[in-house]
Every structure is written in structure tokens, then in C-alpha cells.
Amino acid sequence: MGARATGLDLSDVALDEARKLADRAGLHADFVCANVLDQQPAFEAQFDIVFNSFGVLGWLPELGPWARNVAHWLKPGGRLVLVEFHPAVWMFNNAFTRVAYSYFNRERIVETEQGTYAEPSAPIALPSHTWNHALAETITALLEAGLRVDSFREMDGSPHDCFTNTVRGTDGLYRISGLEGKLPMVFSVVASREG
Question: Is 168 helix (H, G, I), strand (E, B) or coil?
């Protein structure tokens, strides 16, 4: 007997691809096209686990609505599992040659992105609007939403080769060349809703 999953994304195109992948894998999953910042009354106390993966938080201008939604969507005793790129990574320019942005969420970061994360060589140039959230901002949003932080970890390597100038370590993780062991790349948080 397997788990039943529900995926939420703002992009209907991404959700169409997720449905195809779930079908190919024989997984039981529902998909909802919505903004993670908007309340979803149908989700109230529905989930044992809410999982947020790499590259979610940077698209959100503020974290309070997200954290409150997660808290509302979890069943009592349920857990949030968050794995995300470290905010220190987003301080640098794309070449990792200089600090270009604040560690703190003091301004919207506007860049022109070449290609896409799925196809870096795609002949597209689009504006990108993101926000950097300090670790304290993330943890505080979860605590203020009524969640208990059970685990917090930082790692100096990324499982994804999505940055410029990376080298792969013997552990399989990617690090910025010249900054190996010096720059946190990802972090994880496990938080729970009291039972």
C-alpha cells in the first residue's frame, strides 16, 4: 500500500509534465495549480508530510504566508521537510566571482536569465525576479506559524549541478571551484505541527 501524493505548483505546464511522470512511474498523485501563498481550504489538516524541494523559497517575496499555509495543511503530528539552496549561494553573481546581493531580504533581485534551469542552452532570455531569505527569516516564519523545528542542517555541497564553475566531490556533491568546503550550498529543516 503506497502513499497518496498531492503536488502543488503555479505552472500548469510543469504540472502536466508531473502528471506524465507520475503515470509513467505508476504513482498515485493529484496535482493542483495554485499559488503556495494562497490559502487552500481543501488542504486543511490533510497531510502527514509537506515536502518543499530546492528552489521554492527564492520565488516568494515573503515567507509568512507560506509557513502559515504549511502549518494549516499538516495534520496534528505532521511534518514539514524542507531542502533548499542556502541563501549564501544567492549572494553571488552567476559566475561566483563577487558578492552581488544582500544575504538579507532587503530587495527584489532582478536578473536576466539565459536559457532555463531545465535547458540552460535554450535560446531564451527572460527577466527573473527572486528574493533572498536569510536562514533566520525561514526559521522564524516556521516558528511564528506554530511549528516546532526538530532538525536543521547545512551542507557544503549540492546534489544538483546547477551552478557555474562546479566540481564534483568524491561524495557525489557539487561545489563551486575554489570555494570547496568554504561555502554552504544547501540546508534542510524538519519541522512539525504539535499533535
Answer: strand
